[in-house]
């Protein structure tokens, strides 16, 4: 073993000095001070005018660097435009979702006072469930309402700000004053007072402020009330209660579990200080569904998320604490990576000048799988000339590409229209299990919706509809379908039918459950049930015919519309469906990575000889920590340190024979052991077995 | 004004405290010297502070009241004492003369108070009473605070310090002798009922005055005997319960229901028989304060309805908690701990032939702490929807650590060491050492219900079953 390699292996750099158990001392070489701290870089103020170029440099030229600068710019601009539209939509949805709770909470805050609560502190308990972020949106909007009307404000206290009573009070007071007066106002407020200097946590300050501003409602919001220390919470609340005759407190508690659980955790004396009402924020799942629906079924949509990503997104949203914001961030990331890494995304931009798309770009299109499929179809259809033309004439190809892009996008819009139609019709079913838009979308994007049970269910629902419901459904039919002449006729017929029967009773088709009659006959002491059709009026029969026609039209429509999006030419440009960048970024796997790095270090390290990379067994060329880790994996829950050391030494001895310096290996061993300790993989066993180490991490968990 | 007169004038508003008012009035008499220190003690809601204030203002003795529960530290209390004294003496604007309004120690407080009292104009020089309310609840109080405050009156002749305690004082707790104590005992049955009857009868629409006049006294004493007496309830709870139950109690009269035995002539006995359920259910729930009160219904029919609703609401609330993977891991935690706890304990009990001697919920409370690695291993076992291909799925720990942090934040699981001294640990501290043990911080029943929600039966995973 050469000493240089050893040095490198030990790599006693500065950041390890915190935990390393052992190191090899090296006297500082004259003239070179290794431990001198790096020179401070001069800080360049980044607040000044930003370089206009830096913005476009976020995107790099693709196609082996041969993409035109304009193309890059176009991708960036298109992305920005697309996302800003979608973000607005998401914001709109989030605000809409919160609106109901906001009005409830606001009216609660306005209407209650200590007098209406038997002298207790008015308390709004807001259960947020998994929709954690909604509370901060709610609070900021509540604050806007209260401050703009001059009634008071909202002070948000987080468990992190409330380490002890003094700190929490200080934070409450400061937040309350800065909320309306700003930071300078707070300082001024402190210094401008007459009288002796008040301690920062004295609620007298707040009292002064409230008297001066004429505040009527001061809402103290504890956003994550479960994370507060119960003792501290009790102290705080009893203080607030004692000041309630002077400061108009209202408490708002954000609860993630349930009110009962929260209540049982507080002491009784603390619970008796509070009285109020319980509000529930809509669950995140619903919100996420609505966001997804709005993004995908947009009638002017340009880019769609594919099936893989959709299922990944919903898996994460349903399995983990995930906020709608996090969901939209993931969608944003997906969208961005499409524009970042796919040169074809430039086609989605506004500019369609042929100069933008030349050379390599055209070549790239010709290499697309969907292009090949398209060509094969053309050949099969008997137009080889067209294929030749596409392959040779760039201009013609580009024209076709734009043409098919339009068509493809229209098909996607149609698919999602069909999805919304099915979803709307399924709302009329009696069944308990209702498919969400996301479920339907996943199936539609996989091209499976057309043959699935869902469509049959939906058609059955339509058959059973009475005329009143049908009227509503007909009005919402997508434009693509209602332009059809058969449907127009059908609508007209339906209209005339309705006119001819001015009865209050809605018409029923023969498929409706009310139209069939169950007959009971007793045959040989057994009851037989038989279903028969009730006598239908003439109008009902007429109505049944209309229904039949509608169902036929719908069936035709679905088989036409619900195709596999992957079969569309140019789907690579408007359908993004790569799961990997999303998964790697939003679900990192640190433990797996560490275990792999330790188990087979040459997956990560560059080795001089190829032989090292392939081999799986332990060798002295590997870093010491990795060797020790692999030995450690072979041991049981308890391992004798001496045994471990013997095994470690044997690795070096077997490869280097007599040359091996036991003292250096010992140093390596100690270093490696302290590394493992730092990773949390070993700890000292009990005091009785001082010479043993206990294993505290197992592989593959 | 004689002490008797003071007591009489106060008793109109706050009855049944004549003795104490008379004692206080005697001790605070402006023309007689007061004791330097006075201890007033009694449990909460026995009218201590109110009577003291009443006596002092009736006698027109200058005084300052400091609510010690509003003071965060000992220093804060001393400063407050100084300011309130200055305010009571009308010298608030001259605060700069007295230690610049600052007071950090009891000894300096003695000096400053003496200075304040000395600057009074001669005609105002009389006794000054300093009332320290709930002084035994003072936060961060130095151990010598109480006895030091008790000395103030000895050092400053014109000062009388009143210490109001809500706990019964130990003998010689001030380390000085002959300190007069005045006790405010809890109200007796007769007193409590008298106080309630002194206030007007809650009005119920449609109830004849005569009926309420006859029935209400009986009703109040029944409420006392059934609900308040056994639970040592205070006057405010007594009043609240009476106000809440009264409209429901007389509902049969108001609605004109037929009385048992014919006619619409209801007397108290018949109402009690009719409403005995009311006392059992509604009354007992009224004793426990809930943050979200259940709506009290006007008629007995709606009582049942509201109860059903309340039950429904409870049922709706529990599963409405986030039904996420994170929770799933928590159920695993219990299971892991339980299975380890049960594996050992049930082995011993079944060997002796006890035959299920363990009862479920109590053993959940005694669940042992467990290391995280164990939890991860158990997670694999109990996952209700395991991955189709376990070999190619990434390590589960990477997926659930974030959830675990959330659970930790919600204090559903806590580190075993921090379980007892949890107050000292900041909530932001979520680091975990290798091999650190954790435990569950919620009841087993709750977890059982939660587990059912995600399709896991906790009992199945326990050696010996849940019950």
From TrEMBL, chain A:
<dbReference type="InterPro" id="IPR045667">
    <property type="entry name" value="ORC3_N"/>
</dbReference>
<keyword id="KW-0238">DNA-binding</keyword>
<keyword id="KW-0235">DNA replication</keyword>
<comment type="similarity">
    <text>Belongs to the ORC3 family.</text>
</comment>
<dbReference type="Pfam" id="PF07034">
    <property type="entry name" value="ORC3_N"/>
</dbReference>
<feature type="domain" description="Origin recognition complex subunit 3 winged helix C-terminal">
    <location>
        <begin position="591"/>
        <end position="698"/>
    </location>
</feature>
<protein>
    <recommendedName>
        <fullName>Origin recognition complex subunit 3</fullName>
    </recommendedName>
</protein>
<feature type="domain" description="Origin recognition complex subunit 3 N-terminal">
    <location>
        <begin position="21"/>
        <end position="347"/>
    </location>
</feature>
<dbReference type="GO" id="GO:0003688">
    <property type="term" value="F:DNA replication origin binding"/>
</dbReference>
<dbReference type="GO" id="GO:0005656">
    <property type="term" value="C:nuclear pre-replicative complex"/>
</dbReference>
<feature type="region of interest" description="Disordered">
    <location>
        <begin position="1"/>
        <end position="59"/>
    </location>
</feature>
<keyword id="KW-0539">Nucleus</keyword>
<feature type="compositionally biased region" description="Acidic residues">
    <location>
        <begin position="1"/>
        <end position="10"/>
    </location>
</feature>
<dbReference type="GO" id="GO:0006270">
    <property type="term" value="P:DNA replication initiation"/>
</dbReference>
<dbReference type="Pfam" id="PF18137">
    <property type="entry name" value="WHD_ORC"/>
</dbReference>
<dbReference type="GO" id="GO:0005664">
    <property type="term" value="C:nuclear origin of replication recognition complex"/>
</dbReference>
<dbReference type="InterPro" id="IPR020795">
    <property type="entry name" value="ORC3"/>
</dbReference>
<dbReference type="InterPro" id="IPR040855">
    <property type="entry name" value="ORC_WH_C"/>
</dbReference>
<dbReference type="GO" id="GO:0031261">
    <property type="term" value="C:DNA replication preinitiation complex"/>
</dbReference>
UniProtKB/TrEMBL annotation, chain B:
<keyword id="KW-0539">Nucleus</keyword>
<keyword id="KW-0235">DNA replication</keyword>
<dbReference type="Pfam" id="PF14630">
    <property type="entry name" value="ORC5_C"/>
</dbReference>
<dbReference type="Pfam" id="PF21639">
    <property type="entry name" value="ORC5_lid"/>
</dbReference>
<feature type="domain" description="Orc1-like AAA ATPase">
    <location>
        <begin position="13"/>
        <end position="162"/>
    </location>
</feature>
<dbReference type="GO" id="GO:0003688">
    <property type="term" value="F:DNA replication origin binding"/>
</dbReference>
<dbReference type="InterPro" id="IPR047088">
    <property type="entry name" value="ORC5_C"/>
</dbReference>
<keyword id="KW-0547">Nucleotide-binding</keyword>
<feature type="compositionally biased region" description="Basic residues">
    <location>
        <begin position="324"/>
        <end position="333"/>
    </location>
</feature>
<dbReference type="InterPro" id="IPR027417">
    <property type="entry name" value="P-loop_NTPase"/>
</dbReference>
<dbReference type="GO" id="GO:0006270">
    <property type="term" value="P:DNA replication initiation"/>
</dbReference>
<feature type="domain" description="Origin recognition complex subunit 5 C-terminal">
    <location>
        <begin position="320"/>
        <end position="462"/>
    </location>
</feature>
<keyword id="KW-0067">ATP-binding</keyword>
<feature type="compositionally biased region" description="Low complexity">
    <location>
        <begin position="336"/>
        <end position="351"/>
    </location>
</feature>
<dbReference type="InterPro" id="IPR020796">
    <property type="entry name" value="ORC5"/>
</dbReference>
<dbReference type="Pfam" id="PF13191">
    <property type="entry name" value="AAA_16"/>
</dbReference>
<protein>
    <recommendedName>
        <fullName>Orc1-like AAA ATPase domain-containing protein</fullName>
    </recommendedName>
</protein>
<dbReference type="InterPro" id="IPR041664">
    <property type="entry name" value="AAA_16"/>
</dbReference>
<feature type="domain" description="ORC5 lid">
    <location>
        <begin position="216"/>
        <end position="280"/>
    </location>
</feature>
<feature type="region of interest" description="Disordered">
    <location>
        <begin position="309"/>
        <end position="362"/>
    </location>
</feature>
<dbReference type="GO" id="GO:0005664">
    <property type="term" value="C:nuclear origin of replication recognition complex"/>
</dbReference>
<comment type="similarity">
    <text>Belongs to the ORC5 family.</text>
</comment>
